[in-house]
Specification:
The structure is a single chain. This protein is an alpha/beta fold and about 325 residues long. The chain has a single domain, classed as Aminopeptidase (3-Layer(aba) Sandwich). About 45% of the residues lie in helices and about 15% in strands. It is built from eleven helices and eight strands. An eight-stranded mixed sheet has the order 1-2-4-3-5-8-6-7, sandwiched between helices. α8 links the parallel β6 and β7. α3 packs antiparallel against α4, α3 packs across α5 and α5 crosses α11. The termini are far apart. Bound molecules: zinc ion. Zinc ion binds next to α5.
Length: about 325
C-alpha cells in the first residue's frame, strides 16, 4: 500500500486529539454553544499550510498527481482525520497511466435526517508549484472544520462527509470518478455538495457559486452579515470539483477568491487590494507558498466553511 504513516506522526496526532477531547470534557458546552458555528483558528489553518509546504519542499516543489508529494499530502490529512475519529476511505483510480486516490472521511456520529452534507476540496497541486492557495487553503479550512466537529463532539442532523480529491488539476478526474462510481441511492442522499477551491488569494475577491440559489443565499447572508459584498463565482464555472456533482443534479455551493483574473477598480472599491493586478499573481507558480496567502481573507473564509457546515448540516 502506498500510504504509510510514520509511527511518530500517529502518536503525535492521537496525543493531540486526546488532549483536545480532554479539554472539551472539562469545559462542557451547553447545547446552544454546541449548535453555534465555531470560530475556526487561522493559526491552526496556517499550520496545515506549513505542513503542505514542507511536503512540497521535500518532493521537488510540488504535490502533483502521480507524485510522492501527492501521496504525502494524503497521508497528512488522513492521519489527522483518523486520529480525530473519522472513518476514512481511500478510493483509487488511474489517470495518464498513474494511480491516484481520493480520500473520503465520514463522521460516524449523527445523521438522523438520512441526508448527507458533503464538503470537498482538491488535494493535488499542479506540477509547477506547491499549491498552497490552490488548493491547500481549502484543504486546510475544511480539515480544520472537520477536526472542530470532532473536538466539539458534534452529533449533526445530517451525515457529514468530507472529500479530498485527487487529480483535479487534470480537469477534476478524482471527483468525477467518485460521482460516477457512487450508487444512485447514495447520490440521492446528498442534500448539497459544498466545494472550496482557492479561498485565500493575496489580492482577493469574494465570489459565491451561483448554480444553486438556495445554497448560495446562505453564503451571501454570511458575507452580508460581515459587511462584505459578493459577486457570482462565474470564473470558476466548469473549472472545479463541483461540476460532476452538478451534472448529476446535486445542489452545489462554494466560495472562491480569484486566480489569474485582473481586479477592477470597482472591485477594489468593494474589497480593497490592488486594481490592475491578478487576484492571485502566483496562480500555478512556484511562489504559491504560505507567503502567498491573505490570512485575513482565509480566516474569514475558514469561518464561512464552518458556518455553512453548521447551517446546512449540524443545526437542522
Ligand atoms: Zn484549484
Amino acid at each position: 500500500m502506498p500510504f504509510t504513516l510514520s509511527r511518530p506522526a500517529v502518536i503525535a496526532a492521537s496525543t493531540l486529539s486526546a488532549l483536545m477531547l480532554g479539554a472539551s470534557g472539562v469545559h462542557a458546552e451547553t447545547p446552544a454553544q454546541k449548535s453555534a458555528a465555531p470560530d475556526i483558528s487561522i493559526t491552526k489553518v496556517m499550520r496545515h499550510l506549513t505542513a503542505l509546504q514542507q511536503i512540497s519542499d521535500a518532493n521537488n516543489g510540488n504535490r502533483a498527481h502521480g507524485t510522492p508529494g501527492y501521496q504525502a499530502s494524503l497521508d497528512y490529512v488522513k492521519g489527522k482525520l483518523d486520529a480525530a475519529g473519522y472513518k476514512t476511505t481511500i478510493q483509487e483510480f488511474e489517470f495518464g497511466g498513474k494511480k491516484s486516490w481520493n480520500l473520503i472521511a465520514d463522521w460516524p456520529h449523527g445523521g438522523r435526517s438520512g441526508k448527507v452534507l458533503m464538503v470537498g476540496a482538491h488535494l493535488d497541486s499542479v506540477d509547477t508549484g506547491p499549491g498552497i492557495n490552490d488548493n491547500g487553503s481549502s484543504v486546510a479550512a475544511i480539515l480544520e472544520t472537520a477536526l472542530t466537529v470532532s473536538a466539539k463532539k458534534i452529533s449533526p442532523s445530517e451525515h457529514l462527509r468530507f472529500g479530498f480529491w485527487g487529480t483535479e488539476e487534470e480537469t477534476y478526474i478524482g471527483s468525477t470518478h467518485y460521482v460516477d462510481t457512487l450508487p444512485k441511492a447514495e447520490l440521492s442522499k446528498i442534500s448539497a455538495y459544498l466545494n472550496f477551491d482557492m479561498i485565500g488569494s493575496p489580492n482577493p475577491g469574494y465570489f459565491v457559486y451561483d448554480q444553486s440559489p438556495d445554497v448560495a443565499k446562505h453564503f451571501n447572508n454570511y458575507f452580508a452579515a460581515k459587511g462584505i459584498p459578493t459577486e457570482p463565482a462565474t470564473a470558476l464555472n466548469g473549472r472545479s470539483d463541483h461540476e460532476p456533482f452538478l451534472a448529476k443534479g446535486v445542489k452545489v455551493g462554494g466560495i472562491f477568491t480569484g486566480s489569474a483574473e485582473i481586479k477592477t477598480p470597482e472591485q477594489v472599491a468593494k474589497w480593497g487590494g490592488t486594481a490592475g493586478e491578478a487576484m492571485d499573481k502566483c496562480y500555478h507558480l512556484a511562489c504559491d507558498t504560505p507567503a502567498n496567502i491573505n490570512q485575513r481573507t482565509l480566516d474569514i473564509n475558514s469561518d464561512a466553511v464552518a458556518a455553512m457546515v453548521w447551517k446546512l448540516g449540524v443545526q437542522q
